[in-house]
Amino acid sequence: MSFRVTIDAFALSPGVETALVAAGRERALQHSRLGVHAGGLPGAIVHLAHNPTPQVVIVEENDDDRTMLGRLEQLAEVCDPGTRVIVIGSLNDIGLYRTLLGHGVSEYLVAPVTPGQIAGAVSALFADPAAAPRGKVTALWSARGGAGASTIARNLAWHMGKALGEQAIYLDLDMTFGASDLAFNLEARQSAAEVLAQPERLDSVLLDRFLVVHDDYLRLLPSGGAAPRSLDIQTEAAEQLVDLAARMAPALVLDLPHVWAPWTEALLRAADEVVVVARPDLASLRDCKLLLESLAANRNGNAPARLVINGLDLCRKTQLTVKDFHDTLAVAPALVLPWDSVLFGEAGNNGQLLAELGKGHKIVGQLESLAATLVGRGQARKDRGGKTLWSWLKG
Known about the structure:
The chain is α/β, with parallel strands linked by helices and 395 residues long. It folds into two domains: 6-126, 3-Layer(aba) Sandwich (Rossmann fold); 136-375, P-loop containing nucleotide triphosphate hydrolases (Rossmann fold). The protein contains 17 helices and 13 strands. The chain is elongated, with a radius of gyration of 23 Å. Residues 379-388 have low confidence and may be disordered.
């Protein structure tokens, strides 16, 4: 499996629990995160009511078919639309099997089950490459050079991973002047430029080898540490890189250079979210207006770009106000970050994330909140009254 799948499994019996734990070591699930919990189907309902929904839910149920269907209805009320559900049951009944599959349950396995059966059932859900789960892509763009988009991109990526309890991926695509090697205090083995220089070799295996693990919440493809050079980036290669990375993590952050080229334009238009970072000055306001108008014309139905104003109060007497941006752009900033030379300066010099240096700092809390919103964890679960199990499982 060349993509990463998040799975939560809920066992009732020791035999199924043992098989689920062993399934996580199967080759087909080597890039996936499989969490095994107790409680079976009732336990899944309680757990998912208060925790993020994974891409696949596996539940064991040993009660009668009527009780099972009722509990699956309750499960649907606490799951996100499109969640894949695999049921492990004790009833070897073809009628029940057809009923469940016909109404949206992905697979029904009869206990006892083997690790291979479980891994095979999950793999079959994504056998078609088009069906492979794809993480949410967020692109960061500076309205003007020096607005701080790269710093914000790196920190948002880390907070996204933390919010999801998974490793997010950060791609430093500023292949000429990127500085993520310094920002993370590492010596880059390979860079995004080297990946895109050989698009014919690019696949998930190569990309997985090039990604650097920062911690439990972040992997990155760095740039920096090499002499600046002119690069001819092909749009198809950039899109292929982003598509592969998006299938390897639940959240992907693109740190784009301040260069208007066919490939950067294509990635901005295709991203699920675009965050434009601006300083509170007239030039940034003008460029924000031009960019937002350009993107609004063709974003393929994706969300409108979000605005972040960075460095407020650096020049209090000459800066534009938040109201100036709102009145001109008709966009309320998603985030307004105050100027803090100590926090940002020390983090940059030490090769640290802001959260590592300034725990409890207001700016860290603001970034954490925006990251949660971008990955869909910043809002309370919506009321799903009136929806049936089947409408949710079918997505």
